[in-house]
Write a structure and sequence with these properties.
Elements: E1 5-10, H1 14-19, H2 23-40, E2 44-47, H3 61-71, E3 76-83, H4 89-102, E4 107-112, H5 117-121, H6 130-146, E5 150-153, E6 158-162, E7 176-179, H7 183-191, E8 195-198, H8 203-219, E9 229-237, H9 241-264, H10 277-291, H11 293-298, E10 302-305, H12 307-321, E11 325-329, H13 337-351
Parallel strand pairs: 1-2, 1-11, 2-3, 3-4, 4-7, 7-8, 8-9, 9-10, 9-11
Antiparallel strand pairs: 5-6
């Protein structure tokens, strides 16, 4: 098991938008940060998309990533994830292919079905059909990238000799990632030879799920190489363990509570997900994240401490899970920008050398 590649995972939380006079200042700040991340040697930069949500307020990710493409030269980037039911698949395919050209082949395509019912209700989208919609959309997107014309007759989209252009810069197309929590999603990704990503489950559960994914992939007898696995976690590095905890503890505990409170105040409010073993476990994790700092730390959901502490925990986590890409989310809840930037610097300069070949 080789060393992982490292990146940053960026979200544009409601706290930043609420405290900035104009959104342009927030975008500019994050663009400067991704430039600095590239200078520091981070290999990946991912953002998150949500609609109708206070979790993330980067609602036009392709527009923003076009700016990232022009501000950087080496770092690979993408959205982890595009919620596929919210998109017209042909337009998304063309947007992604164009962005792949603008970046000279640095685009990574993250996909998922979405998890919050209230986001779907507000756009009059059928939440309980999101998996079927997503699978149909992804099939169309791959056809748009690989065929000169697309004629398709599905339940949700129909095309009669569509002529999608351009084809992607990367051939046959950019890496496709599937955000997978349920066994069916893991199996879907494995059987189609797609990469797989995770961000919510506790470490022990992710280790089991990634093992299952790899086992199914081997059963398919693809010639290789094996697709990659991706993990993102909250990370806060400071000069000492005590300083790191003092800066990060309340930010971690309030990150989910504050966003849920904002949505709960709206007329549509919050809606629950289907009852399943996967969703019950995710609910348990969300509850623990809202009530206990130790729950974050003990389950690997956050890596907080001095450079030495974070390096040790990161090595232990990698040994357990065996991921190929690790992205550090330094913008933990309402943590001040200066502290997030300090964490990013310390992680790159004092933690990552522990993983040098």
């Amino acid at each position: 098991m080789g060393n992982p590649a490292f990146g940053t995972y960026d979200n544009f939380a409601v706290y930043e938008m609420a405290t900035s006079p104009v959104a342009a200042d927030v975008y500019e700040q994050h663009l400067r940060e991704v430039q600095r991340a590239e200078e520091l040697g981070y290999q990946y930069y991912f953002i998150i998309e949500h609609q109708n949500s206070h979790v993330g307020q980067l609602t036009a990710p392709m527009v923003y990533l076009s700016a990232v493409a022009q501000r950087t030269q080496r770092i690979r980037f993408g959205v982890m994830i595009h919620q596929l039911p919210f998109y017209h698949p042909m337009r998304l395919a063309e947007d992604a292919a164009m962005l792949d050209h603008l970046s000279r082949g640095r685009f990574e395509f993250g996909t998922g079905i979405g998890v919050a019912e209230h986001e779907f209700i507000r756009w009059n989208l059928p939440f309980h059909e999101r998996r079927q919609m997503s699978e149909e959309a992804l099939e169309i997107i791959v056809q748009a990238w690989t065929q000169e014309e697309v004629t398709y007759h599905g339940k949700y989209w129909q095309f009669d000799e569509a002529l999608p252009v351009p084809k992607p810069y990367q051939q046959p197309y950019p890496p496709i990632w599937v955000a997978a929590h349920s066994p069916s999603a893991l199996e879907f990704a494995a059987r189609r030879n797609y990469h797989v990503s995770q961000n919510i489950d506790v470490d022990a559960v992710i280790a089991e799920k990634f093992d299952y994914y790899r086992r199914v992939w081997r059963e398919c007898q693809y010639p290789g190489p094996m697709p990659r696995t991706f993990l993102t976690r909250a990370v806060h590095v400071a000069e000492t363990d005590a300083i790191a905890r003092a800066e990060a503890e309340m930010a971690l505990l309030s990150s989910r509570r504050l966003t849920r409170e904002q949505i709960a105040k709206t007329r549509v409010g919050m809606k629950g997900n289907e009852d399943s073993p996967t969703n019950r476990e995710l609910g348990r994790v969300f509850e623990g994240m809202s009530t206990s700092y130790d729950f974050w730390i003990d389950n690997g959901l956050a890596l907080v401490g001095s450079p030495e502490t974070v390096a040790r925990r990161l090595q232990e986590q990698h040994k357990l899970i065996g991921y190929d890409v690790f992205c550090a989310n330094h913008h933990v809840g309402p943590i001040p920008t200066a502290q997030a930037e300090k964490s990013m610097e310390l992680f790159a300069t004092e933690v990552l050398p522990a993983f040098a070949s």
